[in-house]
Amino acid sequence: MEIEPRGCVHCTRKYHYREHDFMVCVFWTPFLVRWNLTHGGQSFIDPHNVYLDEADPEWSGDVAGYDYAVLSGAKWFTRPTVLYEGGRILGCANMDGCEAAHNATDVAPDYAVRASFRTALRALAGFRGRVVVRTVAPPHYENGKWYNGGNCLRTRPVRSNETSLPETEAAFHAAQVEEFRTAASAASAARFVLMDVSEMMQMRADGHPGQYRHWPHEKVGFGIDCMHWCLPGPVDAWNELLLHLLLSG
């Protein structure tokens, strides 16, 4: 396998399997639509300008050369964002001082998720391959959030009657599913596939690295990771589910 480019994190990467004449491209497009930082600094902290009605050219200009397109994402919509539609500021999400700084009001993050998936799916209307929409996967913080001591130190598996999607992820999930259904109804049913992992992953808090994401001596923004799916097991089911969906279509 060949990877290009190497050594980057927040960038588009291509994985070439030349023996099999096969390539996977992971497009770095955290919002699916066009975006940039409001000002210089750390991308994790600074607000982002997000243009909800413009597909991100990072992927939209190149996707036609592929046989399958998998749309996923939503997590970045929990970050501070300034939202645009029609070239004008619509409002802000997850940030203080929106009215004073931009003369705009707060917008629910799930509105932004809905609009971004709508824009992305419309951009794929002429795509000749198959489109897979993968729904949001929930975090598993207990006893707090990532920034105030939350953890995922479970001592036994969670039972189905003990958990449900967090409010934010439930709203994101509803927005994704509704936009998928709208797009699928306007196209050939076989071209659009829903890969709904939200409920199943709510049961798998064991898929996160927790306090073992970094070496003990490292200084990091947040030390306990109950959001990313770094451990083998739960996330491997996604590959199996995706393969099943593609082969059975």
From TrEMBL:
Membrane-spanning residues: none
Matching InterPro entries: TBL, TBL_C
Limits of the Trichome birefringence-like C-terminal domain: 12-244
GO cellular component, one term: Golgi apparatus
Signal peptide segment: none
Coiled coil stretches, renumbered: none
Pfam families the UniProt entry points to: PC-Esterase
GO terms of molecular function: O-acetyltransferase activity
Domain of life of the native organism: Eukaryota
Family: Belongs to the PC-esterase family. TBL subfamily.
Protein name: Trichome birefringence-like C-terminal domain-containing protein
